[in-house]
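Chapter summary example.
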Amino acid sequence: MESVKRLICMLLAFLCIGGCSNRQALTEQQPQEPQQSTKSEVDNAPSNHVPSETEEPEPVLPLAEKIICVDPGHEVTSQRVQEPISPHSNATKEAFVGGASGRNQTEEQLNLAVGLRLQALLEEQGAKVIMTRTTHESDMTSYKRAQMANENHSDLCIRIHADGSSDASVYGMSMLVPYGNQLATQDIVAPSQKAGECVLNAALAATGAKNNGIVQRSDLTGFNFAEVPTILIEMGFLSNPDEDARMETEEYRDKLAQGICNGIIDYFASVSDNQ
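The structure predicted for these 275 residues follows.
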């Protein structure tokens, strides 16, 4: 009987030892809770933040702060009035003349079409544009157009025209600039000459037109009353069938406007370089 009791005690002891061992093993196999990082560890952790690149300032447009008067020549009007030729003379001339004509277009129509295109291009380049007219009908004499450019303190006035001749074989592009002792001021002569050269060269490059050169004029009211640099481009001859047909197309009118715009940009760049 005594031996039986000892046997039972030994079995109980063995079971207790095995159970404790199993619980310890289970405890060791259980995954441990992840440790939370301390504040100092978080502060010292490498940052994944990528600093944003410094934004570059917007480029300054080439004609920013420039005031440019665009004068599409001629108009539709029934008025018949005289205007002075020069502030130094009592001589007058007819204020409104019809201009040249092509097969399907008048000079007035062509001048306005190119002028409106030029306005849009110049404004895209930052210029403030003063238009002497934006419609076919107008009562703006050459004197009034010159005064508009003066009163708005224009940095440049570009007068847009086309030519005509009794000889239909004549063609090409030319630039008229102010000159002579009939001018209100001689201060406009040199800058007008430079602007004329720049605009003519750029317009020729854009269109491939024949170069008829630069012509100095002393008999134009729009020049003689000008107090700001003023030029007049003769874009081509409406009396020449081939040139007339080209100037009637939208594509060529776009080229004319773009070339004039390019030349104006070139002019102000050259002025800036010389300052």
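To summarize the output: Confidence is low (pLDDT under 50) at residues 12-34.
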